[in-house]
Amino acid sequence: MGIITTKGKISMIKETKLVYVVAESMISALDFGTEQNMAAIYNGETAIKLQQDKQIYPEDFMGAKIDQKRLNRCFSSLSHYNQLAADFEFTIFEKMAIMSMAGIFRDQEFPTNKKSLFILSSTKGNIDLLQEDNLQKWGKERLMLWNTANIIRRFWGFENKAMVISNACVSGIEAIALGSQLIKAGKYEHAIVVGADMLSEFVVSGFMSFQSLSKQVCQPFDQDRDGLNLGEAAACVFLSSDKNQLAENEKVVVVSGGGSSNDANHISGPSRSGDGQFFAIEAALKEAHLSAKHIDYVSAHGTATPYNDEMESKALTLAQLQNKPIHSLKAYFGHTLGAAGVLESVVCIQNLRHQKIVKSLGFKKLGVPLDLNIITQTKEQALQHIIKTASGFGGSNAAIIFSLLKKEQQ
Questions:
Q1: Together in a domain, 226 and 330
Q2: Which of 267, 301, 377, 382 is the most buried (most CB within 10 A)?
Q3: Which pLDDT belongs to residue 408?
Q4: Do residues 259 and 379 both lie within one domain?
Q5: Domain range spanning residue 171?
Q6: Are 177 and 41 in a shared domain?
Q7: Which residue, of 183, 214, 245, is where some domain finishes?
């Protein structure tokens, strides 16, 4: 129940089913694989460094870029059980998305029949193909997200048409929420949601024009924050209403609520009051049948831009979440745009499975107008409900809640 589609209005979907998070996987500039990425995060490592790739941008900038040589090697290994990996030429973006799914498909047999849905979340997809030499090689149609999603769908053999969610930086959260709601509505039994985005001249120059990129590793919510860093990543979650899909002895995590809103404030600037993100949080709590007091941990958007972090402090205060442990993951991965919602949700799910909270890397002293309980130490902590938030261009906001089921609830 409950997703805000216009300012303050909530539309309902009747819920009778639990939506289980069966498995999750990610690749990033930090490392390839969920366990490897989580180990790096728990060690406080960052993937952000000086980028000097003139094909992406003529000037040096701070960002997080996946090692393409490693990506190509890993992708080639997929040809052992899928001949398409050898017979068809895939783009870097397509390889990233497929590799994030391989982390799940290698470990278990995923149903790809008519009961299953594939959703791709991305802001730009194959945007690097806009460059003239790439465009001549690949053609204009390869730029289309629907075509990209269809190529990935065919690789894994999904029978249903793919869905695409492309709504700025809230895309990933909205894609997971959509998959969950369609399962609850009985349209599908399973959904695999993939979020991916890559660095390109188009993306970097756009953020440069906003003067929103930092020349150092970003510092979300800090008094010295001066902008964001861009990053590359791909991540995947496998959702299902079928409890039999769950691994034996695995902690049971469910998608308990989701919501989205539009604050109708500005095409590229967040609401100064925080009400848009608050409405999304409120909708997610309503769908989950929870209140703020039940939330144990907040994974904020936290881009480290002056306006975003200020807005979030107001939204979290409106939602009465300001005293909960709060972090941003942007200083680990960079801002991965359409991948961020899925990527950071994977971290949230892992935090529930391992009962750990992760420090907000780069944070030293609070620099937002309202007090927030920013995490400065990674440590073990009892967790049952985590809320993940996001905001993006066009006034978009989203929130999703993951919950760890107690034994009596399973």
A1: no
A2: 301
A3: 63
A4: yes
A5: 23-245
A6: yes
A7: 245
Kindly report, residue by residue over 251-283, the tens digit of the pLDDT. 999 999 999 999 988 888 888 899 999 999 999
73: nearest Cα among 53, 49, 102 = 102
**Residue spans of the chain under pLDDT 50:** 1-14
30's tokens: 């930090």
User: Both 57 and 176 in a single domain?
Assistant: yes
The total of structural domains in the chain comes to: 2
> pLDDT digits over 206-250, tens only?
999 999 999 999 999 999 999 999 999 999 999 999 999 998 888
Does residue 9 sit in the same domain as residue 37?
Answer: no
Say if residue 7 is in the same domain as residue 49: no
- Do 224 and 260 sit in the same domain of this protein? no
Domain end call among 186, 216, 245:
245
Same domain, 299 and 236: no
Q: Are 369 and 314 in contact (CB under 8 A)?
A: yes
Tokens of 152: 């990935």
Q: What is the CATH number of the domain that holds 405?
A: 3.40.47.10
